[in-house]
Amino acid sequence: MTATQEPRQQGAAPGGGEETRTITLIQAVTEAIAEEMEQDSRVVLFGEDVGARGGVFMATAGLQERFGKTRVFDTPLSEASIVGAAVGMAARGLRPIAEIQFADYIGPGFDQILSQAAKIRYRSGGQFTAPLVIRTPSGGGVRGGHHHSQSPESYYAHMAGIKVLMPSTPYDAKGLLKAAIRSEDPVMFFEPKRLYRAAKGEVPSHDYTVKIGEAAVRREGNDLSLIGYGGVMPDLLKAADALGAEGVSVEVIDLRSILPWDRDRVLQSVEKTGRAVLVSEAPRTANFMGEVAYVIQEQAFDFLTAPVAQVAGFDIPYPYVQDRVYLPGANRIVAACVKTLNY
């Protein structure tokens, strides 16, 4: 299995035997949006350049021609307006999908997410909801520097009232996005841009969803639990391959859902292996994986044979040309695993 392939149990259609085909992660995103728009007339799509151009990464290519300019349309360069409009549309019965061109740009819309989308159900006593999806390319690996490569998902994991997702495979990208569009709650959907065309996998031809809040075991093992999500997952699999060649049995877990996250599956794995290495590309301080580490030491402390380790980005603005230094690649992950195994 290569780093960009999905384990068979995750990529095959449920039940086995159904027709599947191999597509990229960005094709999975496009298909999910198109199918949901086809099935539900309430779904609308808008953002900067998503219409005629099809988005910066072409994730929405062809959708305006297919569904028309009233359902797929471009917006001004104003993230606050994009998110605010999505909240209003959702409160009035639509199912908006708002694209933010890069995750780094969400800042101007932050208050709309925090104060409106995440809280409208609670503030209104259930009279209003905000079933919207905010899609955005996230993470590094494309030498985009500190305005096009950041991983800000931890900010949103702190907001009660929303869901935060980041897939790493085409199967999950399509299934999770469809589940997000159908959700009754607002969803932040981070798409790891370096995997848009690098990640390929089998996706069913029939309609399906992936349950929000469930992690995926990409590889089973007994000696160490290697846990990550999003763009780092190919590196986790490469690290597991390297350690496997030395006789180390590594269990690889893809959280894929950050809020809510699958505590049960993580704890089951750590209780089995006794060791955990947590990986993400966001800066180390206040990284969401710190919450995962806390829960592990709180609820599985007696099973640990070594301290929980974390491999992350550095506490600096994202560098323009030093992606390979900043990102937690397979070498850094293997080093952390070896240190944990030798504790």
Secondary structure: elements and pairs:
Blueprint: H1 8-11, E1 20-24, H2 25-39, E2 43-47, H3 63-67, E3 72-74, H4 79-91, E4 95-99, H5 110-117, H6 120-123, E5 133-138, H7 153-157, E6 163-165, H8 170-182, E7 187-192, E8 200-204, E9 216-219, E10 224-228, H9 233-244, E11 250-254, E12 257-259, H10 263-273, E13 276-283, H11 288-299, E14 309-313, H12 323-326, H13 330-341
Parallel strand pairs: 2-3, 2-4, 4-5, 5-7, 6-7, 10-11, 10-13, 13-14
Antiparallel strand pairs: 1-8, 6-12, 9-11
Describe what this molecule looks like in 3D:
The chain is α/β, with parallel strands linked by helices and 343 residues long. It has two domains: 8-204, Thiamin diphosphate (ThDP)-binding fold, Pyr/PP domains (Rossmann fold); 216-341, Rossmann fold (3-Layer(aba) Sandwich). Helix content is 34%, strand content 20%. It has 13 helices and 14 strands. The protein has a seven-stranded mixed β-sheet, sandwiched between helices. A five-stranded mixed β-sheet has the order 9-11-10-13-14, sandwiched between helices. Helix 2 (25-39) runs parallel beside helix 8, helix 4 (79-91) packs parallel to helix 5 (110-117) and helix 9 crosses helix 13 (330-341). The two termini are 30 Å apart.
